[in-house]
Design brief:
191 residues; 3-stranded antiparallel sheet; alpha+beta; 32% helix
C-alpha cells in the first residue's frame, strides 16, 4: 500500500471507532437517564470533596463532524455530559477566600446549595450544604493525522481533568471500560 492509502485506511478506522463511540454513548446516556444508576464509587469535586454516593443522570451527547473537501465527513469530536446528584446533601466547611471562590464556582455551574453562618467575618468558617447535581464531562477528540483519540474526563470520579491519548484499536477497546468506570463498577479504565 502507498503511504496515502495507509493514511486513508487509518483515518477510516478512527472515524469508524469515533462513530461507534458516539452510538455507544448515545445508548449509554439513554440508559443512564432512564435508570439514574447509583455510582458504585465516590465522585470528587473541587471544594466539595469526595461524595461517597451519587446518582448519575441528565446525560446528553453531542458530536462535531469534520467536513472533507470531497464532501465526506469524519466524526471529529464526541462530548458526553452528565450530572452526579449526591444521595444526601453534602456538608463542608470553608474559610477566607475559599468561601467567595466556592460561591462563585457553584453559582456558575447552577448547583443548588445553601450557606450557613455567613456573618461577613473572614475568620469564621462557613458551612456549605450542596443538595444539587454536579456536572461531569467526557470529551473525545480524534486526531486523524496521528491516528489517535484523546479522551478527557472532567470531574469523572476525581476532581479536575484527566487526559489519556490512545491509538485507534486501544481506544475502541477502552469505551466499554470507560462506561464501567463512570458507573463506578470497576477500575479497568484507569489502567
Amino acid at each position: 500500500k502507498s503511504q496515502a492509502e495507509a493514511k486513508m485506511a487509518a483515518g477510516a478506522a478512527l472515524d469508524g471507532a469515533m462513530r461507534a463511540t458516539l452510538q455507544y454513548l448515545t445508548e449509554f446516556a439513554k440508559e443512564m437517564n432512564e435508570h439514574t444508576p447509583q455510582s458504585g464509587a465516590a465522585y470528587e469535586f473541587i471544594y466539595v470533596g469526595k461524595v461517597p454516593s451519587v446518582a448519575l443522570g441528565q446525560a446528553t451527547v453531542a458530536s462535531r463532524m469534520l467536513k472533507l473537501a470531497e464532501g465526506n465527513e469524519l466524526c471529529a469530536q464526541v462530548r458526553f455530559h452528565f450530572w452526579a446528584r449526591p444521595s444526601e446533601p453534602v456538608k463542608f466547611m470553608l474559610l477566607g477566600e475559599d468561601v467567595t471562590r466556592c460561591e462563585e464556582y457553584l453559582k456558575s455551574l447552577g448547583v443548588e446549595f445553601q450557606q450557613r453562618s455567613r456573618d461577613g467575618s473572614r475568620e469564621r468558617p462557613v458551612q456549605f450544604v450542596v443538595s444539587g447535581s454536579l456536572p461531569c464531562e467526557i470529551n473525545i477528540s480524534a486526531d486523524f493525522e496521528a491516528g489517535t483519540a484523546t479522551i478527557e474526563l472532567i470531574n469523572v470520579r476525581r476532581f479536575g481533568r484527566v487526559t489519556v491519548r490512545l491509538a485507534t484499536q486501544a481506544f475502541r477497546e477502552a469505551i466499554d471500560d470507560l462506561s464501567r468506570y463512570v458507573l463506578g463498577v470497576d477500575e479497568d479504565f484507569r489502567k
